[in-house]
Amino acid sequence: MFYRPGLDDHGLPRNPFNALITPRPIGWVASVDENGVSNLAPFSFFNGAAYEPPAVSVAFTGAKLGELAGERKDTLANIKASGEFTVNLVSTALMDAMNATAAHLPIGESEFKAAGVTEVAGQVVKAPIVAESPAAFECKLIEAVVLPNDGTGTNTTVFGQVVGVHISDDILKEGFVDPTIYQPLARMGYLDYTTVKDVFTLKRPE
Ligand SMILES: Cc1cc2nc3c(=O)[nH]c(=O)nc-3n(C[C@H](O)[C@H](O)[C@H](O)COP(=O)(O)O)c2cc1C
Fold this sequence. Notes:
It is a single chain. By secondary structure, the chain is mainly β. Helices cover 12% and strands 35% of the residues. The protein has four helices and 14 strands. The strands form four sheets. The protein has a seven-stranded antiparallel beta sheet with strand order 3-2-6-9-10-5-4, with helices on one face. It has a three-stranded antiparallel beta sheet with strand order 1-13-14, with no helix packed on it. The radius of gyration is 18 Å and the shape is globular. The termini are far apart. The mean pLDDT is 93. Bound molecules: flavin mononucleotide. Flavin mononucleotide binds at residues 26, 39, 41-45, 59-62, 64, 73-75, 99, 102, 104, 187. Flavin mononucleotide (FMN) binds next to strand 3, strand 5 and helix 1.
């Protein structure tokens, strides 16, 4: 099959786009608003963007839903205002806590508390990190790029310079990060997830 997004009806029960970009790591992004209230939410349009010096990207895809429809997501607003955020990695053990932070809470209510995870101050940035996460990146905003959208500016990808890296000693085996220890949770299409349990090595050609 072939379809042109925006021009053709794909005819499938649900938009297949996300299901074609899998598995996606989940960036659990913490940020702080202008009153110092911290926010935590998951984003699977997250990835590394540069290796040296390290950078990450997080894509905000659309606006809030429900009664707040049309508004930018709090995380995006906080990052644009403060210029800082952290990205915390999600182990399979943190699945339910991560999912709980995708809900909209009333302003001033801590998503850390609602999810039952521990908020720890960042070392370089004001945004906190999740103590239970196997690893976390402290980031400073490089640029927020607005992508084509419905005119509300809600499709925006932020690029962050990684200025601090936290790694739990528990996930290191002889100095190497071993994902089989914490089993990173990853997004598939629709409401599906997967988790990394097996790793194999493939040497690059000379
Ligand atoms: C696993 C998972 C992955 C998500 N990935 C994204 C994403 O990549 N981009 C996005 O805009 N929203 C994503 N969402 C939805 C946001 O987490 C949700 O809109 C959240 O309420 C935003 O919170 P905020 O308004 O506090 O920033 C995802 C939700 C879940 C559960």
